[in-house]
């Protein structure tokens, strides 16, 4: 019974990790970005809010940088997969040409 509960807990943890890494973070990041931008726009004018503005801008820049990094990583992975596929096709073409 204990082992079964432990396995169920481990499976639940794995599923939660998969859900968290499978793009759910992007939606959360977008929501956070919208929230921060609304807070920035909602600040009244005045020098006493400059520190808040700076902090919000830094948080927004951090989120945007993370988005850019993920986009670049995804594009790089796609390019590498395409190169690998082209290399396989070329190897197959060479093998077919040699067998004839």
UniProtKB/TrEMBL annotation:
Compositional bias segments (type: Basic and acidic residues): 1-14, 68-92
Superkingdom in the source lineage: Eukaryota
Chain spans, region Disordered: 1-29, 68-100
Protein known as: Uncharacterized protein
Annotated organism of origin: Phaeocystis antarctica
